[in-house]
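Feature request disguised as a bug: please show the residue count (275) next to Prealbumin-like fold domain-containing protein in the output. Example input:
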Amino acid sequence: SNTTDSNGTVSFSLPAGSYTVCETLKSGWTNTDPSDGSGCKPATVTAGGTSSVLLGNAANAPATCKVYGVNEVNSSDDQFFTMTVGSGAPTFSNLGGVAKGYNIESLALHPATGVLYAGSGDTNKYKQRAALYTVNTSTGALTFVGSTGLKELEALSFNPATNVLWGWGYDKGLVTINTSTGAATVVYASKMDAEGMAWSRDGKTLYIAENKTLYSYNPATKKLTKITSSLPGNVEALSLRPDGLLAMAVDSSKTLYAYDPVAKKEIKEKRITMP
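Example output, currently without the count:
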């Protein structure tokens, strides 16, 4: 019996013969290879030789997942809310009271720290147009981080591979944002009016939505490619689901759509109806 190192490997010596190698996991993990879930594979060791056995495992998905959102009350007031998703129907709860005068246009959750960030639009009543804020996930209270120098901060998304915050600035295009100061740097100039964006799980593709059109952006080549112009509606928010589908909220709808960007189609059985 041995414990794997930080790379997930372990080595030990055995006499020549046939063996069954098994993996015992800590709580919260599941055997994935072999596919029968046994966590065991046969191995044959020859005299003076070596034998390698590959066993797969993965962390179990949490029983529930909390999603943060913001609902526009009027042109400058907004209500933060949470959606808790589990095995049953999702539940919704307001997060604090109405955030008056901030004109919040976008949200993004830091993948490592869990800090929730928000971006404002151009009707902010505190002279903080296109500003970056942090949001208290218990009370909904906003804390000013800094100005991006843009006209509007229409969309936000963290790259999960680099933890860098990306955004879409009205009349400017794609930007990266310093989460300590709010300063924005243009990386792809565009006049598009995009209001939703979400990174793929590997951080190699950024999905960007403008009205009913979905694009993909490759940060390595700095190329923007149109995927489809047939989304369910004018997209107001975009996020990546754990299953790789895109969750999208569209203008004047209480439906949270699930869209497959590879198959280029909506997955209707995975829609979520919001109150």
